[in-house]
């Protein structure tokens, strides 16, 4: 029953996290499209209250599901500790560890997506405020068009630099993940080599024992044959 509840909560969390990730991905594009559509000072640049409310609602729902799944995992841990069946404890511990890993992955993905969303929202609010100040200055002065154009170009340069920095960070994170994967493979190979190296001395000692037993058996057989031969000779000459 606990495993069934855990799987149901995991399926719900998976669907919620997919929708949550799509919301966070579309947030920046929606805000950019809104800025291109409305350029008047009377129209608010940051009209993303509906998306913000949706984000808060989904975040609360996901946190509640994570809390329920954590409680189910704790109940499974209690049942595993009180099972008292040695032949089943290994399978139960394996199942419990699998569900714990899934919970940890979902928790990590949720916090990562949430942090990315908050960073995007903060950046968009900052850029929107800067753009609004530039537009206000442009409409108020009406004479320094060249300076305003320079401000706008500088603003675009900053946005391009921000995109380049994000791409560089993504490349660095991917490289880090690849290095971590390669390190895991090297550790696995190293452990296998150590296992083989530990097995070879045992094989050598086993071969040496077999050879010693063969020599002992040969000596015993030779001694028995010699004694029998002497007895036969004594009996024949007697």
UniProtKB/TrEMBL annotation:
Please list the coiled coil stretches: none
Q: Which Pfam families match?
A: V-SNARE_C
Transmembrane stretches in the record are 219-237
Q: Where in the cell is it found?
A: Golgi apparatus membrane
Q: What topology does it adopt in the membrane?
A: Single-pass type IV membrane protein
The Gene Ontology biological process terms listed for this entry are: endoplasmic reticulum to Golgi vesicle-mediated transport; inter-Golgi cisterna vesicle-mediated transport; protein transport; vesicle fusion
Q: Which GO terms describe its cellular component?
A: cis-Golgi network; Golgi medial cisterna; Golgi membrane; SNARE complex
Query: What Gene Ontology terms describe what this protein does at the molecular function level?
Result: SNAP receptor activity
User: Which InterPro entries does this entry report, sorted A to Z?
Assistant: Golgi_SNAP_su1
Q: Which UniProt keywords apply?
A: Golgi apparatus, Membrane, Protein transport, Transmembrane, Transmembrane helix, Transport
PANTHER family for this protein: GOLGI SNAP RECEPTOR COMPLEX MEMBER 1, GOS-28 SNARE- RELATED
Known function: Involved in transport from the ER to the Golgi apparatus as well as in intra-Golgi transport. It belongs to a super-family of proteins called t-SNAREs or soluble NSF (N-ethylmaleimide-sensitive factor) attachment protein receptor. May play a protective role against hydrogen peroxide induced cytotoxicity under glutathione depleted conditions in neuronal cells by regulating the intracellular ROS levels via inhibition of p38 MAPK (MAPK11, MAPK12, MAPK13 and MAPK14). Participates in docking and fusion stage of ER to cis-Golgi transport.
Protein name according to UniProt = Golgi SNAP receptor complex member 1
> What gene name is listed for this protein?
Gosr1
